[in-house]
Amino acid sequence: MNTAIEFKSVGKRFPKSEHDAVSNLSLTISDGELVTILGTSGCGKTTLLKMVNRIYEPDSGQINFYGKPINEMNPVKLRREIGYVIQQVGLFPHMSIADNIATVPKILGWDKNRISARVDELLELIELDPKEYRKRYPRQLSGGQQQRVGLARALAADPSLMLLDEPFGAIDAITRRSLQDELLKIHRKFGKTFLFVTHDIHEAFRLGDRILIMDGGSVQQYAKPSEILKNPANDFVERLVSSARQEEIEWNAGGDGNDRLSHPIS
Amino acid sequence: MIDYLIQYPDYIIVPFLEHLKITAITMLLSCLIAGLVSVLIMRSKVLSNLVVGMFSAVYAVPSLALFAMLIPFLGLGERTAIFVLTVYNQYILVKNIIAGFQSINPAIIEAAYGMGMSDLQIFFKVRLPLASPIILAGMKVAVVSTIGIATIAATINAGGLGTLLFDGLRTQNMVKIAWGTLLSSLLAVGANSLLNLLERKVQKITNEN
Asked: Who's near B205: CB < 8 A, 6+ residues apart?
């Protein structure tokens, strides 16, 4: 399989910080893979993600995007090939839903009909009726719908890579689940490479083809979910997995015997 | 009142046109300078606080005193008036321009960068339209304040509706005072509607893009 992204001894320390946000990290992400990056806040997962589209620049090492070193690419052009979704969504409040989704196609100079068709196609993909939603403004949408539009906007120009920074972190559990399902559906349909940052272990295991577990700026384990459950690489991963299991046991014990959770972990 | 207008149209129309001219030139200069100053200081919080603080100190000086202080340097007349009015406006305009840009949710800017918009595209398609309601609100305050303070500029021979007001006061001519008041109010209302029109235009343009 082709390599989508390759990190080569990448390091990053923020000014005034005493330790590395990401230290000497090397790994590869294959084309078409959905990799979830799991860790507590401050573990470096978001820093790692934002170095890929050059929102942050690494202090050392090199990142390759389909074989090309990204520091030799124009950051603006690089970003147009990468979809970017953040937790706060960041839709443009002064633009309609259609115009929000059309942002990158417009920059790229697509003609009007093609843009319009693409907007409809994407709205249907995220299950918002184009007739009803095209002309609405972001404030008229629920949080879950806004994040759906954020996803559509990132997909608009058909990027080969999607970066998602805790996109469902601020969304209620029920809506989050349906958004996860849609994300999986989209991933399967287009076979793009997804890098998905989350601090939610259930989400990481549910979505990831592979999971990258980070702590203190370095990789603790990078493997398939089943492999992580079978062979946790170290104490940290062991504790992480067992705490999630413990949580599920408590959930079940607190109930009346009905099974309330599906068990991605146990 | 109408009789007075018919009898001495020049006594009313000329000061009105002078006032209009002072206001227009002042607003044009003020907005240009405030835009430039804001761009220069916006990136630094310390600098913008310092500059806005300085402008607020100047704004607190009574206009009559400021006119008097500047006569030795700039002489009497329109030029001095426009200078003082422009300086006053800086506080209102710069403060609002900076507040307008600071009011934007940083997540929106991050998303814009992440999508691959250039600095210029982000400025014109995102930052400026989102800051414009607050900037336009500042312009509305500035234009009304300019029209008001410009009447005082009559004391330094700048002409304008202030001449009607001060003449009326001196000669106890209520008709003159009434015309002066009415016309400056009309001017303020007119300027405001013009800015409202501009606001709708701006909204329309940004929505179409």
From this structure: none
The pLDDT score that the predictor gives to residue A42 is: 85
Contacts of B207 in chain A (CB under 8 A): 94-96, 99
- Does pLDDT of A260 surpass 60? no
Is B120 an 8 Å CB contact of chain A? no
Report CA dihedral (A63, A69, A75, A77) to the nearest 10 degrees.
Answer: -120
The dihedral sign for the CA sequence B184, B189, B194, B196: positive
pLDDT tens, residue by residue, A184-193 = 999 999 889 9
Mean pLDDT, residues A246-265 taken together: 65
The Cα B43–Cα B6 span in angstroms is 56
Residue B48 is which amino acid? Answer: S
Has the ipTM of the complex gone over 0.95? Answer: no
Task: Tell me if A90 sits within 8 A of B107, measured CB to CB.
Answer: yes
Chain B residues within 8 A of A54 when measuring between CB atoms: none
The overall pTM is greater than 0.80: yes
Average per-residue pLDDT in chain B?
A: 91
Which of B115, B118, B132, B209 has the highest number of chain A CBs within 10 A, making it the mutation to test binding with A? B115
What is the spatial distance between Cα A250 and Cα A265, in angstroms, rounded to a whole number? 14
Residue ranges of domains in chain B, CATH in brackets = 10-208 (1.10.3720.10)
pLDDT category, A250, cuts 50, 70, 90? confident
Task: Report the percentage of chain B scoring pLDDT > 70.
Answer: 98
Chain-chain contact of A107 with B116 (C-beta, under 8 angstroms): yes
- The span from the CA of A177 to the CA of A98, in Å, is 25
Q: What is the DSSP string of A123-161?
A: HHHTT--HHHHTT--GGGS-HHHHHHHHHHHHHTT--SE
Distance of CA B17 to the CA centre of its chain: 17
